Automatic annotation (TrEMBL):
It comes from the Bacteria. Residues 15-151 form the EamA domain. It is found in: Cell membrane. It is a multi-pass membrane protein. GO terms for cellular component: plasma membrane. Pfam families: EamA (PF00892). This is EamA family transporter RarD. The chain crosses the membrane at residues 16-40, 52-70, 82-101, 113-130, 142-175, 187-206, 218-240, 252-269, 275-295. InterPro entries: EamA_dom, EmrE-like, RarD. Keywords: Cell membrane, Membrane, Transmembrane, Transmembrane helix, Transport. Belongs to the EamA transporter family. Signal peptide: none annotated. Coiled coil: none annotated.
């Protein structure tokens, strides 16, 4: 292998890591975006409607850049694939709705808990539904997470429905996406297309009734238009980096987003009692066990090969 080839490989790996870090940083700071719109008087459902409306344009742009127009046309002739994508659309719409409403209700910390739990829930779903082998570290991680959720339930006085709803909806979304025989850009575009029509109708209704904020002032309009790239760009970065990085590396990086969200929740003054802190200690221990298991697999894989 020549030095130029090694340099090119290192450059690709570095770019992939930067893209991975970039997508999780964007997701981590996303609560600030919704919080800003909320201060300007935009309601949660108006935010979601604009998110669905402008995302389809950006997702369509990704399809054009990837030259996947033919694949989109092919998927449109496959009722089964369209049906699965409709179900995944409902799952991601539920995830978006829970997240935006939670952020604007001052429950960012609870939302961050959901994204800590999500990879552990994915691992459990893989074992139950796809008979994937679960390591000892994985079982320990899920057990610690269960203890953390139990303590969080005691601290809140009720089940952390926001956390569980976010984790479950995204887990269902991931399971459904495994069944779709189409590239990420194609699937995302069709999902956004499903949501764009009701999003457009709701935005039109708000504007016609005088309750919409799109024409309130230029700053608000720009921020609402930014819902498109705020949704699609991190997804594109994720898809690009996930194809080039080991799953274990993505496993480490994915905890950047909930950590930032957690810190933002504390910064915004959300209640963080000692009991809630204890629940996060168990969640973080579970995350550490998960990360250790991922690291160990990268060490044993070359030897097995």
């Amino acid at each position: 292998m020549t030095s130029s080839t090694v340099g090119s490989a290192n450059g690709d790996a570095r770019s992939a890591y930067l893209a991975g870090v970039g997508c999780y940083l964007l997701w981590g700071f996303l609560p600030l975006y919704f919080h800003t719109l909320s201060i300007m008087g935009v309601t949660s459902f108006e935010m979601i409607a604009h998110r669905t409306l402008w995302s389809v344009i950006w997702a369509g742009g990704l399809v054009l850049l990837a030259r996947q127009g033919g694949q989109v046309a092919q998927v449109l002739r496959q009722p089964r694939t369209l049906g699965i994508l409709l179900l995944s659309t409902l799952a991601i719409f539920g995830n978006w709705t829970i997240y935006v409403v939670a952020v604007n209700a001052g429950r960012v910390i609870e939302a961050s808990l959901g994204y800590y739990i999500n990879p552990l829930m994915n691992m459990a779903a893989g074992a139950l539904l796809f008979r994937e082998r679960m390591s000892t570290e994985g079982k320990v991680a899920i057990g610690l997470a269960a203890i953390g959720v139990t303590i969080q339930t005691i601290a809140l006085g009720h089940l952390p429905l926001v956390s569980l709803g976010l984790a479950l909806s995204f887990c269902i979304y991931a399971i459904l996406k495994k069944q779709v025989k189409a590239d990420a850009q194609t699937g995302l575009f069709i999902e956004c297309a499903y949501l764009a029509i009701p999003g457009l109708l709701y935005v039109w209704h708000l504007q016609a009734s005088g309750a919409g904020h799109f024409t309130q002032d230029a700053r608000t309009a720009i921020l609402l238009l930014a819902a498109g790239p705020a949704t699609v760009v991190p997804l594109a970065l994720f898809a690009w980096s996930a194809r080039r990085l080991p799953l274990s590396a993505m496993g480490f990086l994915q905890f950047i987003a909930p950590t930032l969200q957690f810190l933002l929740g504390v910064f915004l003054g959300e209640a963080f009692t000692p009991l809630r802190a204890l629940s996060f200690v168990f969640i973080w221990l579970g995350v550490a066990a998960f990360a250790y298991g991922a690291w160990k697999r990268t060490r044993t894989a070359p030897a097995a090969a």
